[in-house]
Specification:
17% helix, single chain, Immunoglobulin-like
């Protein structure tokens, strides 16, 4: 009886672990900036196979070309039924002279590592 239970437990845990990992890393597939004289609103479109609360995109961030974090948009829930999804972040102050930004997403299992998006800013 114990051996059967242990085997069953292993199979269930292996299946759950595989489901969590199979969602992969989060990719930023598009982004745009709408700016006025002092701040920008950054919109990012992210693709990820969110798998419920255990594996989902929990934020994306705006980086300078040198990798310095400028802003972060926290995501408070999974987007299982909305893929890809777009969210915006207003009030972002971009350092003067910045020609491009990097946008990357973070998921709760893999962290950063998916496709980054390079956002070229126009004058």
């Amino acid at each position: 009886m114990c051996k059967t239970f242990s085997t069953f437990t292993f199979v269930v845990l292996t299946s759950l672990n595989s489901a969590l990992i199979s969602a992969g890393e989060a990719d930023v597939v598009a982004a745009e900036a709408r700016c006025n004289q002092s701040t920008c609103t950054i919109s990012a479109t992210v693709r990820h196979d969110d798998a419920g609360w255990d594996h989902y995109v929990n934020h994306w961030r705006v980086l300078s070309a040198e990798g310095q974090e400028i802003a972060r948009r926290v995501l408070h829930h999974p987007h299982e039924n909305e893929q890809p999804f777009t969210r915006s972040l207003g009030g972002v102050r971009i350092p003067s002279g910045t020609g491009q930004l990097l946008i990357e997403a973070h998921d709760s299992v893999h962290g950063y590592g998916g496709q980054r998006f390079t956002l070229v800013l126009s004058d």
